[in-house]
Amino acid sequence: MLIIATYDVSTESSAGRRRLRRVAKVCERVGQRVQKSVFECQVNQMQYEELERALLAEIDLQQDNLRFYRLTEPHDLRVKQYGTFRSIDFEGPLVV
């Protein structure tokens, strides 16, 4: 499944800035950054649940915001992109 993970972490304190870095690192392990606090992730149900648990362990529910969007198939009809960003084709061949 393709999910969009978004977050808004309060950076008013040094603890908030540390949380922001940790949240970004968790997301970078699973998906690709498409904007500063927005990640596209191609995951199965188990990976999705692990990502959710890891992010909930990092954020402060009183100060921060975390949202997940599950995109339904077919993705090419639901996602439009403009500009210079080139996303990874999760379904395409892997070329190293």
Summarize the structure.
The chain has 96 residues and is of the alpha+beta class. It is built from three helices and four strands; from the N terminus they run βαββαβα.
Query: What integer is the average pLDDT?
Result: 86
The major sheet is characterized as:
4 strands, antiparallel
Spell the H/E element sequence.
EHEEHEH
Low-confidence stretches: none
Q: Examine the coordinates and then state which fold CATH places here, giving the name of the CATH topology.
A: Alpha-Beta Plaits
Strand order of the largest sheet: 2-3-1-4
EC number: 3.1.-.-
Keywords: Antiviral defense, Endonuclease, Hydrolase, Magnesium, Metal-binding, Nuclease
Protein name: CRISPR-associated endoribonuclease Cas2
Subunit structure: Homodimer, forms a heterotetramer with a Cas1 homodimer.
Task: List the main descriptive attributes of the protein structure presented here.
24% strand; 96 residues; Alpha-Beta Plaits; alpha+beta; single chain; CRISPR_associated_Cas2
Task: Describe, in plain words, how this protein is organized in 3D.
With 96 residues, the chain is an alpha+beta fold. It has helices spanning 14-30, 45-58, 75-78; strands at 2-8, 32-35, 38-42, 65-71. The protein has a single domain (2-74), classed as Alpha-Beta Plaits (2-Layer Sandwich). The protein has a four-stranded antiparallel β-sheet with strand order 2-3-1-4, with helices on one face. A hairpin with a 2-residue loop joins strand 2 and strand 3. Helix 1 runs antiparallel to helix 2 (45-58). It starts with a strand and ends in an 18-residue tail after the last helix.
